[in-house]
Each structure stands twice: as C-alpha cells, then as structure tokens.
Amino acid sequence: MRKKLLVIVFYCLIFIMIGCSKNKEEAVWPKDNVVLGKPCMEPGKKNWSIHNAKDIRENFSAMPVYPTDETQDDIYLLGKTENFTLYGKGNYESLLLESNGCYSEIFYPYTSNYMNLPELYELDIDKDGALELGIKLHLQKGTELSIHNLLLADFNEENVLYVYQYREEDFTEDLQKVISFEDVEGGIYPLLNGGKTGIYMEDKYENDPFTSIGVGAIMHFSFDDIQEEIWLTGAFLFERKGSVMYETDGSAVKALVGWDGNEFFLSQYQVVLEEEKTLEEKEQRKEAKEGKKAPTREEVLELRKLVTEGMTEEEITRLSENIKVANLTMEEAYLYDSLFERLEDPEDLYWNYVDDKGEIQIGWDLSEKHYVAASGLTRNEWGEKYGKPIMVYNRFHAENFIALMEEMRDSIHHEVWQEDFNILIEKMEMAKKTHDVKYMIELYRILHDMDYFLLRYGPEDVGKYTKDDSTVNKFYGVLLVHDDPLKD
C-alpha cells in the first residue's frame, strides 16, 4: 500500500507526571520527569464540581468538536472502572482522575475531530500486586494516520498517584531501534533485531528504490485483559529517498509494553503478518481474475448521484459521515484489535459490545490466579471461578446501530439502496441473535463498499497513493446498487 507520509504538528506531547497524595499536600516528584500538575487536594476550589458532572459516555461522539463559551466550565464523566473515575472539563483540555478519594489534575487534550471516548483499563502491568489504570486516547486519526496515546496511572509506595504518558516520540524510537533492513535485487527485506522477518517488499520503481524501513504513521496500543498486558503495534513503512511517500503491505512489528514504576520499555518483539488479511487479499485477487472489478471513479460518482437523488445536502452529509465512522471503527478493530478472531467464539465476552450498552464486561481480571490451560476449564470458566470482571462503558450496541441505520435508510429514496440498508440491519440482527462472526464480517464488508465505493471513492479520496491490494482498494461487490438496473 502506498501512502503519503503525513507530518502532523499536533499537541505538544511531553512525558507527564501528576501526583496526588492522601497524606500530604506537597508530593515528592521523581526528578527525571516533567510535571504538569500537582495533587489536587480540593477539586472544588479549582472549579471541579464533580457532583454536577454530566455523564456523556453514551453520547460522546455527538458532542461539539470544538468547545463553546457555554460549555467551557462544564464537567463531564468520561470513564469509570471499579477503582478509578475520569472526569473532563468542557474546554477539552483538562482531566481529573479520582481513585479512593485521591485526585490528580491532568492538563492534556482528550478530544479530536473524531471524538473518540477515552478507554480505561485496570491491570497490574508491573506485577506488583496492585492495579494500575491504562488510559488509551485516539486523538491522531485521518486518511493516512492513526496513532494512539497511552497514559498510565500508578500509586507509588508513599500512596501518591502518578499519571505518566508514554510519549509518541519515545515509543516510536523504542520500536524503530529494533528495525533494520537488507537490500536484495528487486526489493527489500525488513529485519527485526537483525533477523529476517519472512517479509519481502518488491520494488517496482527501478529509478526510485526503497532506502529505509520504519514505523510511525500507524501506531496502536491494545490491551490483553486475560494476561493483563499492553501491546504496541506499528505498521512497517517502506520509504524512498527524498520522498514524502511510503508503502505498507499490512505487516507490522508488535511489542509488549513494560513499566517498572519509573519508565516505560518494550520487550518480546514479534512480527505480525496479518494472515487473515492475506487470505482476504487472495480471495479478492481470485474474484478479480473471475471478472469482479471495482467500479471506476466516474461510475462511483454517477451512482452516488443517482442513489442520493431527492435527499438534502444535510441528509447526504450526515449519512456519509455515519457510514464513514462505522466503517473506520470496524476497519481499525479488524486490522489491529483482532475483532473477528475474538468474535469467532460465540461465548467471548467481546460479544457484549453487540448485546448491551452501558457498563459491560469484556473480560476477566486474573491477576490473583492466572489461567492454567491444563485445568480443563475454558478461560471464561476459569474467570468465573477465580477472576474479577473487567468492565468498560459501551455506548453503541446492536440496538443503537440498528436504530441509526433505520434512520439513515428512511432518509433516502432509492429503493435498491434502501434494500442494502435492510440487509445491513439484518446482518446486525442476526449477529446479535446467533453470535456467529460471519454476520459481523458481512456487515463490515457492506460498510466498506458503501463508504469506499459509493459515498466516497476510496482509491483517491482515502488512499490516493495506495497499491491495488491495499485496504481501500478492496472491492467486495456486496451492494445491490452496484448491480442495480435502475442506474442504467
């Protein structure tokens, strides 16, 4: 996949540490870190009226992208776990973390244009017997970019709560230092700690060969609820000399995030080959050979004009944005968070994202008694017997998705396109009813084609510099409107 390498000037991301002590007003700060705040002993005196906090978790994505004068001083409930509660101010730049009566004020932006709600996970990352809180933010996101930010809250021996950030420049450098490459005739091999990865990138431009391999544009953190681990995954970027272009083939390097109470570090480096993605690419190439071709830009524009006839510009914009967000959300989860692998098990607690909204369980805290495969118990059975539930807040379950898609369907006038929405809704209904992952895969493909080959033209609007086998160039051919005789 060829993409333009975006250089984003974003918020100043610096290593932060904020403390809060139940026992003393002035905390002792580690000297090597930059402090952006001190213990917030009396939040009310700093305009943190948390007793009036508005719970916006369910409707966070509908909040204004930019703060207004009327909402600057509002207090929002952003997340809650068993031991931690996260609040945010209406200026979108201040956070307050509470744990067992201890407060820490964090001066850090928590929103972006995509309005992704902060994700909270309790885990014992340093295996000291006490739970820390991982906070994942997704602020940097766009056509060519997707970078997570990681904060970690941890009490020290003096009962002082610190909040640290694993800086983007630090985790990028930590991952980059184990990556090198070997030039071969006609291409390039990525190396991991000096060893071959099994990946080969063919170079099709003799006059502009690859000159380096790196990471940095697609960097995602994921949480393993069973093992209580945090993993960092960075896509390989194949770069050319003096060019703002890079290519990627879906492969990535993955590493375990460690924390020693003072700094972050990486270990257990491994290569991710995206086998499931590779199989889908093979399927796509097979379909192409059988004559199933993606529509051209002109065909997409013509079809879009036809199916949106009679709709207002506001209706078209709202529908397009909802489909785009739904597609990108599933695409990210599929490519980087093993969505379909987890949903292959109909009993996996990840299905709670489909079944329920509000506080849901997505896993088990097994820090006190780790899973033993030889026990004969499944992970879920082991968790029920020895673990504690891992809870998160889910605002958008199947019923909400169905209601939104029904609203979108009712705003259009093209009968065949309405039938595509009926099929989309039916897939979600069947997924909820059966817990069969095939319906979630089929639902994803509908969203994909509707976003990239109807409401937008993926090869140019999203991946102008991509190869034929890139994600945005995939055409599943699942929409009825692509074979609708009414468009002739």
List descriptors.
488 residues, globular, five-stranded mixed sheet, ten-stranded mixed sheet, alpha+beta, 11 helices
Description:
There is one protein chain. This protein is of the alpha+beta class and 488 residues long. It folds into three domains: 17-140 and 148-164, no CATH class; 172-273, no CATH class; 286-357 and 395-487, no CATH class. The protein contains eleven helices and 25 strands. The strands form five sheets. Strands 2, 3, 9, 10, 11, 12, 18, 19, 22 and 23 form a ten-stranded mixed β-sheet that branches. A five-stranded mixed β-sheet has the order 4-5-6-7-8, with no helix packed on it. It is globular, with a radius of gyration of 24 Å. It starts with a strand and ends in a 26-residue tail after the last helix. The model is unreliable at 1-37, 275-291 and 465-469 (pLDDT under 50).
Radius of gyration: 24 Å
Which secondary-structure class do the elements indicate?
A: alpha+beta
Total strands: 25
The largest sheet is:
10 strands, mixed
Which band does the percent of strand residues land in? Answer: 25-35%
- The overall number of domains is 3
Shape descriptor: globular
Low-pLDDT stretches: 1-37, 275-291, 465-469
How far apart are the termini?
33 Å
Nutshell version of this structure?
The chain is of the alpha+beta class and 488 residues long. The chain has three domains: 17-140 and 148-164, no CATH class; 172-273, no CATH class; 286-357 and 395-487, no CATH class. It has helices at residues 168-176, 275-289, 297-307, 313-336, 339-343, 352-355, 379-386, 398-410, 415-434, 437-452, 458-462, and strands at 2-4, 16-21, 34-37, 54-55, 75-80, 85-89, 94-99, 102-107, 119-123, 132-142, 145-155, 160-166, 179-184, 187-192, 195-196, 201-202, 210-214, 218-224, 229-235, 237-240, 245-247, 252-259, 264-272, 358-365, 388-394.
